[in-house]
Amino acid sequence: MTPLVKKLVAQIGALLEALQRANSEIGQLRDEIAVLKGEKARPKFKPSKMDESTDKTDAPGDSASSKQGDKVKRAGSAKRSKTAQLQIHEERVIAPEFLPLGARFKGYRDVVVQGLVIKAHNIRYRLQTWRTAEGAYLSGQLPASVQGHHFDPQLRSFVLHQYNHCHVTQPLLLEQLRQWGIDISAGQIDALLSADKELFHDEKDAILVAGLQASRAVTVDDSGARHQGKNGYVLHIGNELFGWFGSTGSKSRVNFLEQLHAGAITTQVNEEALAYMQAQGLSAALREQLGQASKQLPDTSRTLQDWHEHLSSLQITDARHVRIATEGALLGSLLDKGFNPELAIVSDGAGQFAVGLHALCWVHAERLIHKLIPINDAQRQAVARVRGQLWDFYADLKAYKRQPSAEKVAPLQARFDALFTQSTDYYTLDDLLLRLHRRKDELLLVLKRPEIPLHTNGSETDIRDFVKKRKISGGTRSDLGRQCRDTFASLKKTCRKLGISFWSYLLDRVSLSNTIPPLPTLIRNAAIAGALP
What we know:
20 helices, 5-stranded mixed sheet, single chain, alpha+beta, two-stranded antiparallel sheet
């Protein structure tokens, strides 16, 4: 096949793929129209099972089931008393309806029936008022948990739990509480959900600080999140012991670095900032100008607004120069605050996450190949063959993570090169493999850091709950509402990962009991115990 023919075949293949993608988009739009009309959409394909299908050997204790004969028994389903651990709140003794003469009592046969008491419970606090001999007045004081409130901690916690955990909308909450005899208005429910939540917001910000400081690796992802009728984005950062959400109107690298500050956003031009600017291609003259300006000021840490005014004063107004300088200054301030430069950030390959020590998700890499649209049998066979090779290699990487060895590194690197530089006569596939090969360091970071995850499944799972709430409630209308949505999503997800009941956490904080330690403290304790990845 001559070079000209190869070029024409490649162009035809590219055009056919573009046509297939256009048809796919048309199908998606038709599905949306069908849903709006109340009709059913087309069935969707299942996601990639590469991660579950590549466990060549299970690590000890990893098996989800145990075999008994020919039956497979689900873990945790062993025989046990279903009611032995239940707290008994009430006992009722029931005698037979008829006792014949001579019958003898032989004890009880206990039957435990679980129930739930749902009813209004109103308390009238009568604060005694006394007058002393000197004419001063003394009065009883309300419990701290109800001061300034017309609803007790149980009811306030219930509202927060129903809305943020169970995704019950405000109108349904209003109807539900009124049916139970609670005299409450829509405005009061809104206030219970968003007003006076500073303690929760502070703990949410502290979660990210503790998680970033204690972790060796985190996964990140983002999704859509409408606000005030405009498209926006939500960022997720987390790992096995914490999950953190932050919504903004952008998903740029500047925004990502701002979110990593987890609080006051500051900028600083230091050696790390200048090194980043150099790596991003900022000219030596501009770097020299920024470096000299930072040395002339005793306080080089600025707020974001002060930073932009500073750039204007230096006549740095080109959009690209401003972006690179801002990214560098934000990163420099982060590192000055103690951000761990060895923290591995695992992402799906989106450019805004390529900060510091960056690793790529293997599941997303395989998904790029899976999304190709071959136009003939030869191309379909090539895609199937490469995907099979990729799955085998991924399985060996998982085995390496379980038992790292320096002797395995070179063979794995050689296999990676062979896999991603092969020629398949499918131009689009070959081009994709070469693009992935150029990101070898990010895909094979696990060979240097076996503790980091190979995928971002954790972030995708965490953010799915956020997406579900978005589908139910739509977007937010106020900045306070958006802040509360992010805060309680973060607290809920972190509680779940730490094994804490979200209901117990809410009731503990609202009632001011504070018997549950701060979540950042629990994250740090888990890191010390070696529970973090």
